[in-house]
Design a protein that fits this description.
four-stranded mixed beta sheet, six-stranded mixed beta sheet, Alpha-Beta Plaits
Length: about 450
């Protein structure tokens, strides 16, 4: 197929998938699943739909391998975060193709990668390639919440997934920073440790303030929590990543030699404070997200709450973190854990990492390919916690500014990036098909 024809097909497929509103909540992934099912059926590939409660749905397809057991899984999710139509320049679910970009919610996270994984999977079938082990294409829903109606549900129905040899999904990309290219292959993610501050007090009329106002307690405690930063604590994976990325280069006004030296240099520390990504991979973080209190402006409330989205490093303890927050917040409030995830670190001295690195270098030249830490949560944790190597990587080149488009206003992906992602995904998938799992 000519590249121009391929481009039109891939762009149209992504545009059509974006047009299917799978905002979660409420999800409604069934139409997206039927769209994927139709594409597979057209190629003569059978698929199975797993629906925990319509219209929530997931889809699985398989290319049989030469040997049974230990499949390779190509994993994506079809649900997206909500988008406010009134603040977008284009309809968020219009699938608009304009000025060389495909616009819409999910253009980056992660309908573009779902389409690339699907086309690469179909490509193996078209070429008549029989992989060494089964290759499973799996598109799930509910990733943007807890995954209970998505990956967790399918893994209970398809027990074989729990013995997969390898899983490829979202997490990182090829990053461009001031002309310097390096590929980040996510092998771990930070743990979710969301919590709430709760305060109780005495009600009354707003004209007569007293010393037992629930709002005042929340404000004082929240101020202490958000102004107290956790210490920088680079785990082994982050040390490997930062050293590989920065060694010999200039950053923050000085030449980076080693992380040990950098961590005592005020210029580097100031640079970290101004870089949200570096800050997030080097320490536990806390972000205030929701406040709730009061019924009327002249009534002192009896209860107040503040919610926080905290992400802690993979080796951190949820219990220890909450105890630390309670100590900082003080006795006026109660700290309640409201959401958590656990995630192990996948090994990266593996044939899977080496094949991905070789694929990247065959397309981009001799650039660093480094293991990295994802700051957000993904479905890959369900596999990592079982000891299954699971990497998050989409082979597209993005600047820091472009990466901010994920979950952002006017989310978009360039057609050039989309085609780069397809070429890279096809190269990686073909190598995975030829690989004999250990």
């Amino acid at each position: 197929m000519k590249s121009a024809d391929a481009s039109r097909l891939v762009v149209r497929a992504l545009s059509d998938l974006i047009k299917i509103d799978t905002s979660n909540p409420p999800g409604k992934e069934d139409k997206a699943v039927r769209f994927i099912e139709a594409m597979l059926k057209k190629e003569g590939i059978e698929s199975q739909i797993y629906s925990p409660q319509p219209p929530r749905a997931n889809i699985l397809a398989r290319l049989k391998g030469k040997k049974p057991g230990k499949p390779v899984v190509l994993l994506g999710h079809t649900d997206v975060v909500p988008a406010r139509k009134d603040v977008w320049l284009v309809p968020p679910f219009g699938g608009v193709v304009k000025d060389g970009f495909v616009y819409g919610r999910g253009a980056i996270d992660m309908k573009s990668q779902v389409i690339c994984l699907l086309f690469a999977f179909i490509g193996l079938h078209r070429q008549g390639i029989t992989p060494n082990r089964d290759i499973i294409f799996l598109a799930t829903g509910d990733e943007e919440t807890a995954g209970e109606l998505g990956i967790a549900y399918v893994m209970e129905k398809v027990n074989e997934l729990k013995s997969a040899s390898f899983v490829l999904s979202e997490g990182s990309t090829i990053s461009e920073d001031d002309g310097f290219l390096h590929a980040q292959v996510a092998v771990a993610e930070k743990k979710v440790c969301q919590f709430m501050l709760k305060a109780k007090g005495t009600g009354g009329h707003g004209s007569m303030p007293h010393g037992d106002n629930a709002n005042d307690k929340i404000i004082r405690a929240a101020a202490r929590v958000i102004s107290t930063k956790a210490p920088l604590r680079p785990i082994g994976l982050v040390r490997r990543y930062l050293t590989g990325m920065l060694r010999g280069g200039k950053i923050g006004g000085f030449r980076f030699a080693s992380l040990k030296e950098a961590l005592v240099d005020k210029r580097f520390l100031a640079y970290v404070e101004g870089d949200p990504h570096l800050n997030a991979i080097l320490r536990d973080t806390v972000t205030s997200t929701m406040l709730e209190s009061g019924e009327k402006v002249n009534v002192i409330p009896t209860e107040a709450t503040a919610q926080f989205d905290a992400r802690i490093l993979p080796d951190a303890s949820h219990d220890a973190f909450i105890r630390r927050v309670q100590k900082i917040a003080g006795p006026e409030v109660e700290v309640v854990l409201t959401g958590r995830t656990d995630s192990a670190v996948s090994p990266y001295d593996t044939p899977y990492f080496r094949e991905i690195a070789s694929a990247v270098r065959s397309l981009k030249g001799d650039i660093p390919v480094l293991p990295s830490l994802t700051t957000g949560a993904t479905d890959l944790r369900h596999f990592r916690n079982l000891g299954i190597p699971a990497y998050g990587f989409f082979p597209i080149t993005m600047t820091k500014e472009e990466q901010k488009g994920m979950h952002g206003l006017n989310e978009r992906i360039s057609v050039a990036n989309l085609m780069e992602g397809l070429a890279g995904t096809e190269e990686i998938v073909s190598r995975l098909a030829a690989l004999t799992p250990p």
